[in-house]
Each structure stands twice: as structure tokens, then as C-alpha cells.
TrEMBL record:
This is Acyl-CoA carboxylase subunit beta. Residues 274-508 form the CoA carboxyltransferase C-terminal domain. It comes from Streptomyces ziwulingensis. Gene3D superfamilies: 2-enoyl-CoA Hydratase, Chain A, domain 1. InterPro entries: AccD/PCCB, AcCoA_carboxyl_beta, Acetyl_CoA_COase_Trfase_b_su, ClpP/crotonase-like_dom_sf, COA_CT_C, COA_CT_N. Residues 1-265 form the CoA carboxyltransferase N-terminal domain.
Length: 526
């Protein structure tokens, strides 16, 4: 090889290194200054936190916008405000994009959009989760309609990927306007306290249009989005916490809808343990007293570990991922600690979406029922508990993954029917001996059935008579045995045997194959 050629190579390598230097040192230094001053990490630091060390392969590091309007020709930073690439988390592949607010406000223009589409397409091609880190001023104002077009293109990919690969959004800065809808289309959204905001219109527009004065935090901070609106599935204390949650979540999920769920070595055995025995005193003898359903989930899950999803939203319904005998299970449970575990609109929508996610990705469902029914009230009726409560029935009925249900205490009325009943396609239904499966609670039933008798009774006798009727009703109907007689409950089990019985049931269903008839798609009540 001649010297001239070698000189040429050396020059081109030096040129590459200079460009890398500009991106990785010069721009990153400025990003560190700008982001850290706001209490935020840079786009690259966030990726480093999320992925296995050394696993990140970047795409399009030198991509630059082509816009010449508004003085943009002189401001063409490499990367165009978003870092994209492939990596691994605990050795399993993911595709990731991380918006860089330090460059053009992380605003989305044509090239920025192209980069995100490319990485989403790659995730779909290789069948791996997509993690999107959002920190952006929204549509790039200088690029006009092109920016808007790319939001819609990303939404198209979100929908194409829905139910094919898991999609996770981290909101670690502003996310406003139509930009909120692409995270909203993903499966899980994590928001960080203080620095993250998510709203369709910000406080100034709200004030101008409706006259309401509200702070950005009260309008779209992590608290309100994770407790009231339900847009966020987890509220993180800081960015480290947010990324930790996502790493844990990824550990429970299959890479795509064709892969099996991840499996881990499990030490749970077939002998009744002390923790199992403690379940015999979990449910208080007074039917009106509550207990924490998380204790039951802890007892059933491998190593007592599980990941609650949407913990702060509709806490009367508990949705969580856990491992049982080493394989991921989606747990759906009423939480008697909140509103006695009643099903309201929020609980119904929360559980329905979780069930549909599990079903799409082949994750078996474990339902733990202790439910007094659907929530009565004018507000709920007017807000559409009929239409919105129907989503939960739809989701259960549609799900073809293995479905195991344990009735722990109450399963009354519509609550019985919807919470993983045999009639909605559950495969194995277990009940504790203390379970009360009935049309309604004993007090309510006696009030309806014996209204006249009680009305005609002497006032002094009325309470005693009512109690006798309640006891009689409870003894005759509010037990698991009427359901067991009909095969609606497959087995009545001791609470201490629950972990072993649930594991056995899930094991027996591993080869379950069920397909719904071909159709374009169903029409879930939205
Ligand atoms: C271009 C933008 C930008 C944008 C911010 N910047 N947003 N550039 N397009 N949308 C630039 C700023 O000019 C500034 O550049 C840098 O990013 C940092 O912005 P600051 O305002 O200094 O930051 P901060 O004070 O933290 O305020 C953040 C902010 C604010 C609240 C997000 O920047 C803001 O209100 N931006 C506009 C938000 C917006 O209305 N977006 C359009 C939403 S509609 P310099 O050069 O000074 O560093 C939308 C439609 C999507 O997104 C439709 C989908 C269907």
C-alpha cells in the first residue's frame, strides 16, 4: 500500500474521531451543564443507566436536520436531539431512543422522527422491547408540518408494535401537546417527580381558554398522572428509581409475542411452609374488616417478590407481575384495603388493560378475588360504569392465556362473574373455605328478601330477627359449596395450600392452546 493511501486512511480516521469528539465530548459537556442544572441527566447518561455496560450500539450519530428556515442552516448539531440504538438489559436485547433536551429542546423534526422510526422498525424486525425516553419541547416549531407528520408516523409504529413487542415510555422532562399521545399508546409509562410534566395543553393555554389557574405540577406532574388520570403506571422519586423500575419490569416480560415468558430458577417447593400457614389467619373473621391483599401475593410469588403496576391509581384493584415456579404471571386482585376492593370505573379500566397486555404476550393470569361488586352511585353511573366496567368482562372473556382464579373471601354479584369466573373462561377456579359466593352480601340480601317480615316485626325484636336471618342466609348461601356443587369452583382448598395449588394449576396449563375464531378485530367498549 502506498504512503499516500495510508495518509488518506489516517486523515479519514482522524476526521471520524473529531466528529465523535464533537458528539461525545463537546456536545455532551454542554448537555451535562444544561441538564444537570435542571436536576436532570443527559440523554446518554440515561441510556447508560438503563442498559448493560458496553452493550449500547448507537445508530445515526451523525444525522442532521436539513431545515434552512429561521436561521437553522447554521445550527445543525449531530444527532439532531435524539440518541437511538440497540443494547441489552440483563443480557436481553432492547431498542432505545432517548430525547436530548440540550439540543434544540429535544424537539421533534424530520430527521429526529426518522431516527425514532428506524429504531422502532428495528425492534419490530428483531422482536425486542422498545424503550422511549421522553424529554422534549414537542414538535420542532421551525420545521412546521413535517414535525407533526412524524408524530403521526410514530403513532402508526406504536400501533403496529402494540401486542407484538412491549413498549415502555419514560417521561423525564416536558412532554406536551400531541407529543403525549405516542407515550400514551405504549404499554407502560413511568414519570419522574418534579421534572416531568405531561399534558395536552399547558397551564398558560388552560388559563387563556378556561380561566383556570393551575401549576404545571398540578396539571400534569407525576403525582396527578399516576394517581388521578392514570396516564402513568409508576411515579419515580428520581431518574435512577425510574430506570430501576423499567429494568425490573423488562425482567418479567417476554421479548415479543412469539417468545415464551422469561424463566428463572425457582426454589419454591411442594411442602407447606410457615409463610403458607400464615395465610390461614390472613382474612379477618369479621367480613367487614380489611386486610392487605399484597400479603397473599407475597406468599404466592417466588422469593416473595412482585412488581405492582399502576400502584397509585385505582388502588382498590391490584395488578402486578410476579414469578411463580420461575415463570412470569400477571396477578389481578381486589384490594380490600381500598374501598373494600369494590370495582369502580378506574379499577375496571386498569385491570382490563393489564389483562389485555398479559394476554397479548402469553403471560398467564392469576386472579385473587375478594370483591363486594361494582361501585354504586350517581357519579359512577353518569361517568359510564356500564360501558367502562364492561371492558373488564371483555378483557377476561377475550384472554386465551392460562387463567387461574382463587376466591379468597367475597365474590358477590357482578364482581363474582367478572373476577376470573369459570363463565368468562377461567381454566382452574379455587376457593378458600371462607369464600362467600352469592348474588349479594347477607345484609343486603336480607333487606330485600325479608323487607315485609322485618317491617312487620316488633321494633324491639327487629334487630335480633334481622341478625338471625343474616346468619341463616350466610350459612345457606354465602359459602363456596353451592358454586362447587355446580363445578363453578374446581376445588375448595385450605389457605395454606394456595401456593402449591396455584403453582400446580399453572403447571398443568402450560400447554394450553386456545385460539379465538378469525376476525378483523373485536369491538371492546371504549
Ligand atoms: C423548537 C424548541 C422547542 C420547540 C423548546 N425549544 N421547545 N425549539 N421547537 N418545540 C428550544 C428553545 O427555543 C430553547 O432553545 C431550548 O429548546 C430550551 O428551551 P427553554 O424554553 O429554554 O427550556 P425551558 O425553560 O426548560 O422550557 C421548556 C418548555 C418550553 C416548557 C418545553 O421550551 C416550551 O414551552 N416549548 C414549546 C412547547 C410547545 O409548545 N411545543 C409544541 C407542542 S405541540 P435555545 O436555543 O434557547 O437553547 C406538539 C404537537 C404534536 O408537540 C402533534 C402530534 C400529533
Amino acid at each position: 500500500m502506498d504512503d499516500h493511501y495510508l495518509d488518506g486512511i489516517a486523515v479519514s480516521i482522524a476526521d471520524l474521531l473529531a466528529r465523535d469528539e464533537e458528539v461525545l465530548r463537546v456536545n455532551e459537556k454542554s448537555a451535562v451543564e444544561r441538564q444537570h442544572a435542571k436536576g436532570k441527566l443527559t440523554a446518554r447518561e440515561r441510556i447508560d443507566l438503563l442498559v448493560d455496560p458496553g452493550s449500547f450500539t448507537e445508530f445515526d450519530r451523525f444525522a442532521r436536520h436539513r431545515c434552512t428556515d429561521f436561521g437553522m442552516a447554521d445550527n445543525r448539531p449531530y444527532g439532531d436531539g435524539v440518541v437511538t440504538g440497540q443494547a441489552t438489559v440483563d443480557g436481553r436485547p432492547i431498542c432505545v431512543f432517548s430525547q436530548d433536551f440540550s439540543i434544540l429542546g429535544g424537539s421533534l423534526g424530520e430527521v429526529f422522527g426518522e431516527k425514532i422510526l428506524k429504531i422502532m422498525d428495528r425492534a419490530l424486525d428483531i422482536g425486542c422491547p422498545i424503550v422511549g425516553i421522553n424529554d422534549s419541547g414537542g414538535a420542532r416549531i421551525q420545521e412546521g408540518v413535517t414535525s407533526l407528520a412524524y408524530y403521526a408516523e410514530i403513532a402508526m409504529r406504536n400501533v403496529a408494535a402494540s401486542g407484538v413487542v412491549p413498549q415502555i415510555s419514560l417521561i423525564l422532562g416536558p412532554c406536551a401537546g400531541g407529543a403525549v399521545y405516542t407515550p400514551a399508546l405504549t404499554d407502560f409509562t413511568v414519570m419522574v417527580d418534579r421534572t416531568a410534566h405531561m399534558f395536552v395543553t399547558g397551564p398558560d393555554v388552560v388559563a387563556a381558554v378556561t380561566g383556570e389557574r393551575v401549576s404545571a405540577t398540578d396539571l400534569g406532574g407525576a403525582v396527578v398522572n399516576s394517581t388521578v388520570s392514570g396516564n402513568a403506571h409508576y411515579r419515580a422519586g428520581d431518574e435512577h428509581d425510574a430506570v430501576d423500575w423499567v429494568r425490573t419490569l423488562l425482567g418479567y416480560l417476554p421479548a415479543n409475542n412469539m417468545d415464551p415468558v422469561p424463566t428463572y430458577r425457582s426454589t419454591s417447593g411442594d411442602e407447606i411452609t410457615l409463610t403458607d400457614r400464615a395465610l390461614e389467619s390472613l382474612v379477618p373473621s369479621d367480613p367487614d374488616q380489611s386486610y392487605d391483599m399484597r400479603e397473599l401475593v407475597t406468599a404466592l410469588a417466588d422469593d416473595g417478590e412482585f412488581l405492582e403496576v399502576h400502584e397509585g391509581f385505582a388502588p382498590n384493584m391490584l395488578c402486578a407481575f410476579a414469578s411463580i415456579e420461575g415463570g412470569t404471571v400477571g396477578v389481578v386482585a381486589n384490594q380490600p384495603r381500598h374501598l373494600a376492593g369494590v370495582i369502580d370505573i378506574d379499577a375496571s379500566e386498569k385491570a382490563a388493560r393489564f389483562i389485555r397486555f398479559c394476554d397479548a404476550f402469553g403471560i398467564p393470569l392469576l386472579t385473587l378475588a375478594d370483591v363486594p361488586g361494582y361501585l354504586p352511585g350517581v357519579a359512577q353511573e353518569r361517568a359510564g360504569i356500564i360501558r367502562r366496567g364492561a371492558k373488564l368482562l371483555y378483557a377476561y372473556a377475550e384472554a386465551t392465556v392460562p387463567k387461574v382464579t382463587v376466591v379468597v373471601r367475597k365474590a358477590y354479584g357482578g364482581g363474582y362473574a367478572v373476577m376470573g369466573s369459570k363463565h368468562l373462561g377461567a381454566d382452574i377456579n379455587l376457593a378458600w373455605p371462607s369464600a362467600e359466593i352469592a348474588v349479594m352480601g347477607a345484609e343486603g340480601a336480607v333487606a330485600v328478601l325479608h323487607r315485609r317480615t322485618l317491617g312487620e316485626a316488633d321494633e324491639g325484636d327487629r334487630d335480633r330477627l334481622r341478625q338471625a336471618l343474616v346468619d341463616d342466609y350466610r350459612a345457606r348461601t354465602a359459602s363456596p359449596y353451592l358454586a362447587a356443587e355446580r363445578g363453578y369452583v374446581d376445588r375448595v382448598i385450605r389457605p395454606a395450600a394456595t401456593r402449591i395449588e396455584v403453582a400446580r394449576a399453572l403447571r398443568s396449563l402450560r400447554s394450553k392452546r386456545k385460539r379465538l375464531p378469525a376476525r378483523k378485530h373485536g369491538n371492546i367498549p371504549l
